[in-house]
Amino acid sequence: MSTPSVPFTVMEPPAEDEIEAARRFFAGPCDFLKGVVALDGLPDADRPEVCFAGRSNVGKSSLINALTGRKGIARASNTPGRTQEINYFALGARGYLVDLPGYGFAEAPIAKVERWQALLRAYLAGRVTLARAFVLIDARHGIKKVDHEIMELLDRSAVSFQCVLTKADKPRGGGLGHVIESVRTDLARHPAAYPEIIVTSSETGDGIPLLRSAIARLMPE
């Protein structure tokens, strides 16, 4: 008996006009709005938003900088766990980009880590304008147990999420291909997973136009 194919593919580039429209969108207004430390501090739910979730030091801030073409709009750090708030960035009036606290290891007191992990879970489970969560996975390591825990929360909350591989320039030889195959298999256990994987590198720019296009589709003019 043949083994059924895994229904997850690497996202193919969209049409050139769509890529250009997404580039223009991200070249427009993009401003840091606020950092949120409690749910009552969230901005009004008046437009679509997408969020970036991932293990500490997976490259969320670097990815936001690459997406927007603004080198310092999101703080990047080599210290895991630096982002301890839900950081909102306004894309004009069309939508929000949301940088979530890194989950997993963090160099911070345990009580503080627990508080912002609770905030992360509450946000993912209850934000009505959240159009999609982008779950970032380090292309050197693939999906870990803590990633599955966040994905299971998104499954239970019926929040669509799409896997984005970061640091795709780092694996050598056939390493990237092996990680992609393992990610495809792992995602098959998550009903809320979007069926296309986006492979990116903030350093080389690979995959950034695809991710811009995916976000722009979720924020109609």
From TrEMBL:
UniProt keywords, alphabetically: Cell cycle, Cell division, GTP-binding, Magnesium, Metal-binding, Nucleotide-binding, Septation
Any one GO molecular-function label of the UniProt entry: metal ion binding
GO-annotated cellular components: cytosol
PROSITE patterns according to UniProt: G_ENGB
UniProt domain EngB-type G: residue ranges: 46-221
GO biological process: division septum assembly
Pfam families: MMR_HSR1
Cofactors named for this entry: Mg(2+)
InterPro entries: G_ENGB_dom, GTP-bd, GTP-bd_ribosome_bio_YsxC, P-loop_NTPase
Transmembrane segments: none
Family: Belongs to the TRAFAC class TrmE-Era-EngA-EngB-Septin-like GTPase superfamily. EngB GTPase family.
Xref: HAMAP family: GTPase_EngB (MF_00321)
Described purpose of this protein according to its UniProt entry: Necessary for normal cell division and for the maintenance of normal septation.
PANTHER family: ENGB-TYPE G DOMAIN-CONTAINING PROTEIN, MSS1/TRME-RELATED GTP-BINDING PROTEIN
Protein name: Probable GTP-binding protein EngB
Gene designation: engB
